[in-house]
């Protein structure tokens, strides 16, 4: 589709003039942008700082002296002992006390991508953002320290979810689960490789030795993922389903992992791998959703840069695929749904993850298109980088309070935000306030209470409102009231861009 239009002189002229008028702001568009900023009046820098601070509230392990989320304490200090390995550290995925490797790795990749694209705009928050990445990569290095074995989960999810207790008190089994040659997991393994490779770029200049360690591990982990193929939920279904089943298969992660290793190494081996395996791995399948489970769209956006900016002609199809994704989620597209208040709506549970990931991709793709001085094509229409940025900004503004309820869906941002989030540590008194242990079932009295959470998990973005822009603010409504690391990770990059001035 884009191929035909790009050969049209008429479309070329329209694209050129639209790019001039939208991509390189005229005085009138600058006035319009100024008006929007004045109208929304959001403090993106404050939101950025809080979106990063959130990760400190999700930390597992021994907390550092400079821990800023001070109502949290050490937890999970014996993690890994069930298999005689050190798996202390990392992040709890959401409002529970589980360490699921699949979403943690994706969170790490997206945090790293946020820094790669927009880290230069983070200014004083850049060290905190790097700390957030390192807290994850330190754990992923532990999880991949044994050859041909990846430790992918700590904790028994069914028993964990049967309790409402602080991570500092948890007494449910800290079972350890792994993938290996006999029970492969190409999806979680390739995502881990992507995370390590992306993070190696983050630390390349500031900590070269750590960067090299991450990259060398990424190469080994990806080789294992590719050699021993299969979805990790096939062998670990009782442990990972329905929590983080690999619904989309493992092919998308192999493409995604190869794309990140190509970016991190510039080794032609990975480019050749992508050329040879792209179609087999679903490169040309239609997807209009990007999440911890499905990475096809992210891989297409990432690889489109190679075509747009580095002029790798063999990857031209990825620009077309990226355009197709953009077109499929634009307001008004038949394949997209928006709430009456204007929020992108994909699924009833944890919908905000799709809002933040899509907003990040829009801003990142707009950056690539601007650098290449081109646009996206949707049939006979042209979509400029400026329009992509405008759509992304509106989504972030909705999240921050420009919505029918006038509520920020980021905890601690603005005067009105969720007070009863589905989060054990936030909803129960801290160890400092209540030193004695809160037993497994005793915490449910707070779970059913209408009292606000005693500990503010600053920066946490909850699942968000329903398709009618309604939000009940109930702990029991986990689909809407539970925060998660993979909701925040792409938002960090989006807020960094929006906070640039």
UniProtKB/TrEMBL annotation:
Extent of the signal sequence: 1-23
Its EC number is: 3.2.1.4
Q: Which UniProt keywords apply?
A: Carbohydrate metabolism, Cell wall biogenesis/degradation, Cellulose degradation, Glycosidase, Hydrolase, Polysaccharide degradation, Signal
Q: Which reaction does it catalyse?
A: Endohydrolysis of (1->4)-beta-D-glucosidic linkages in cellulose, lichenin and cereal beta-D-glucans
The chain positions of domain Glycoside hydrolase family read 44-495
Q: Which residues form a coiled coil?
A: none
Q: Which InterPro entries match?
A: 6-hairpin_glycosidase_sf, 6hp_glycosidase-like_sf, Glyco_hydro_9, Glyco_hydro_9_Asp/Glu_AS, Glyco_hydro_9_His_AS
Q: Which residues does the entry assign to the active site, renumbered to this chain? A: 422, 473, 482
Similarity comment:
Belongs to the glycosyl hydrolase 9 (cellulase E) family.
Q: What is this protein called?
A: Endoglucanase
Gene name of this polypeptide: LOC104760093
């Amino acid at each position: 589709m884009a191929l035909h239009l790009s050969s049209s002189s008429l479309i070329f002229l329209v694209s050129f003039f639209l790019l001039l008028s939208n991509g390189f702001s005229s005085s009138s568009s600058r006035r319009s942008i100024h008006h929007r900023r004045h109208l929304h009046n959001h403090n993106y820098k404050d939101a950025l700082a809080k979106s990063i601070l959130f990760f400190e509230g999700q930390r597992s392990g021994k907390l550092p002296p400079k821990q800023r989320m001070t109502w949290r304490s050490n937890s999970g200090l014996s993690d890994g002992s069930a298999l005689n390995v050190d798996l202390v550290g990392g992040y709890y995925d959401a409002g529970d006390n589980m360490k699921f490797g699949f979403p943690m790795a994706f969170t790490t990749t997206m945090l790293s991508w946020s820094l790669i694209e927009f880290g230069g705009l983070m200014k004083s928050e850049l060290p905190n953002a790097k700390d957030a990445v390192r807290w994850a990569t330190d754990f992923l290095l532990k999880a991949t320290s044994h050859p041909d074995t990846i430790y992918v989960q700590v904790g028994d999810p069914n028993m964990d979810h049967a309790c409402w207790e602080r991570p500092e008190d948890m007494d449910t089994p800290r079972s350890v689960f792994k993938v290996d040659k006999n029970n492969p997991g190409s999806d979680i393994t390739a995502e881990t490789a992507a995370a390590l490779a992306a993070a190696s770029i983050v630390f390349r200049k500031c900590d070269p030795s750590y960067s090299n360690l991450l990259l060398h591990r990424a190469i080994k982990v990806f080789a294992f993922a590719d050699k021993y193929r299969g979805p990790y939920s096939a062998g670990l279904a009782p442990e990972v389903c329905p929590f983080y089943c690999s619904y989309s298969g493992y092919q998308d992660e192999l493409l995604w992992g190869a794309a990140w290793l190509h970016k991190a190494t510039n080794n032609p081996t990975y480019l050749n791998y992508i050329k040879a395996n792209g179609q087999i791995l679903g490169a040309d399948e239609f997807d209009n959703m990007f999440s911890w489970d499905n990475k096809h769209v992210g891989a297409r956006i990432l690889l489109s840069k190679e075509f747009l900016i580095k002029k790798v002609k063999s990857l031209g199809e990825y620009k077309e695929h990226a355009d197709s994704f953009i077109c499929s989620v634009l307001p008004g597209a038949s394949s997209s749904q928006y709430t009456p208040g204007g929020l992108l709506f994909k699924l009833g549970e944890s919908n905000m993850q799709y809002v933040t990931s899509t907003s990040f991709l829009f801003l990142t793709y707009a950056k690539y298109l601007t650098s290449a001085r081109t646009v996206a094509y949707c049939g006979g229409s042209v979509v400029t980088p400026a329009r992509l940025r405008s759509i992304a900004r509106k989504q972030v503004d909705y999240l921050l309070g420009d919505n029918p309820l006038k509520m920020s869906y980021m905890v601690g941002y603005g005067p009105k935000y969720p007070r009863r989030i589905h989060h054990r540590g936030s909803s129960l008194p801290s160890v400092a306030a209540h030193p004695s242990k809160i037993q497994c079932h005793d915490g449910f009295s707070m779970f059913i209470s209408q009292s606000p959470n005693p500990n503010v998990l600053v920066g946490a973005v909850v699942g968000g409102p329903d398709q009618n822009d309604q939000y009940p603010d109930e702990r029991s409504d986990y689909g809407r009231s539970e925060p998660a690391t993979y909701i925040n990770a792409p938002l960090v990059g989006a807020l960094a861009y929006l906070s640039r001035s």
